[in-house]
Design a protein that fits this description.
This protein has 385 residues and is α/β, with parallel strands linked by helices.
Length: 385
């Protein structure tokens, strides 16, 4: 039986996070946009500040050109209004000259007093069409330059996209004195997996069957081990929790009642990553679902009819949702990024029914002292090789 290792194997809690809909994707009904849910400062900051008050440990601030606010500007503005939550802004590598990006990251990290984490994005930039291998190579170079700036007093770098000689890295120094913010990464191609294994700290996956998730973790664990590293694992997934299973399923069906196949296709295709391997995997999962859209217990794929990325939701009553989350915990998932529609309402429902039942921890707290690493096996969740 194959085994893989995780970075914080002895951790007895999880980083339970929420989602800030910067990309104009918030609504009560998918495919029927209501202006009151428009992605703007007022709406999105209210969701983030509420998540902070309710006890979520982190919050993803995504990046999208067509329909989104600027991620770093938003994060910088909202940071002083938060008390304990970490921020996870998405960094689209290549958008900003790396030393200037490093300065922006350091500025934000100082505002947050170390509560900054980063989501590394390698998607195409607006108006460009760079191949996958080149996009991930560019991301590798950006990360290497950032790490030199965080850890050294000079930058000496020569790569395919960047050639830099810089004698002063003080403007890039973050508040965190442990090598810089944790890097979160989601990607499925061979080049993306290699990038994460070599440079990042948390591998984020979209929802799939438990078996498929375990296989992804196995593969990433082996890749990281080849670099002498270990990673934490995370799951980005929607959630619909109600007092009863019937109410939860009704809410899921109602969410999509204004969607037909053509509208759903149009919404999915407008994303810059609409043709990625990860999106293809979400489509395959949806095709394997039953007539009601469930691919396994409490995992509903209907939402993927109109979402190019994360295309499934945990649906059920509080006990069922907790059961599903615990099955992921047993696999070794250490970070969760949840979301729901509308985001503020579902954030409050999750905090009411689920959050008090989960022991939560902030993954960056583990940077200074990582516990001993133990092999993780799939037996606890009923998965067999």
């Amino acid at each position: 039986m194959n085994e893989f290792k995780i970075r914080s194997a002895n951790q007895d809690g999880a980083e339970v996070s929420w989602f800030a809909p910067l990309c104009n994707g918030d609504d009560e009904f998918i495919g029927k946009h209501d202006f009151q849910y428009k992605s703007n400062w007022s709406n999105t900051s209210k969701i983030l500040i509420t998540a902070d008050q309710l006890g979520f440990r982190n919050i993803l601030c995504p990046s999208s050109y067509q329909v989104g606010q600027d991620t770093m500007t938003f994060a910088s503005a909202v940071a002083p209004h938060t008390k304990q939550i970490n921020l996870l802004p998405a960094i689209r590598c290549g958008e900003v000259h790396p030393p200037m990006l490093g300065r922006a990251i350091a500025t934000l990290d100082h505002i947050l007093k170390g509560r900054l984490t980063l989501n590394i994005i390698s998607s195409n930039l607006p108006g460009m069409n760079l191949g996958s291998a080149d996009r991930y190579q560019r991301s590798k170079e950006v990360i290497e330059i950032l790490k030199q700036g965080w850890q050294q007093d000079h930058i000496n770098f020569e790569g395919q996209f960047y050639k830099l000689q810089l004698d002063n890295t003080q403007p890039m120094k973050p508040y965190q004195q442990n090598g810089g913010p944790l890097l979160y990464f989601g990607g499925y191609s061979a080049a993306g997996v290699d990038l994460c294994a070599a440079y990042c700290d948390v591998y984020l996956m979209w929802p799939e069957t438990l078996q498929n998730i375990y296989e992804l973790m196995q593969n990433m664990g082996r890749k990281a081990e080849a670099y002498g590293r270990t990673l934490d694992f995370g799951l980005r997934v929607h959630v619909i929790v109600r007092e009863t299973e019937k109410e939860a399923r009704q809410a899921a069906a109602g969410l999509m009642k204004h969607i037909d196949d053509q509208i759903g296709t149009n919404i999915r295709n407008r994303a810059l990553d609409a043709k990625s391997l990860g999106v293809a995997r979400q489509s395959s999962m949806r095709e394997a679902s039953d007539a009601d859209g469930y691919v396994e217990d409490f995992l509903w794929t209907g939402i993927g009819r109109a979402r190019s990325g994360c295309g499934a939701a945990i649906v059920g009553n509080p006990d069922q949702v907790l059961q599903k989350i615990r099955s992921y915990l047993e696999l070794g998932i250490r970070a969760f990024i949840f979301s729901g529609y509308p985001h503020l309402k579902e954030c409050k429902l999750f905090a009411k029914y689920i959050l008090p039942e989960l022991k939560t921890i902030s993954l960056p707290q583990l940077q200074q002292k990582i516990p001993s690493i133990e092999p993780l096996t799939p037996l606890a969740a009923g998965i067999r090789n």
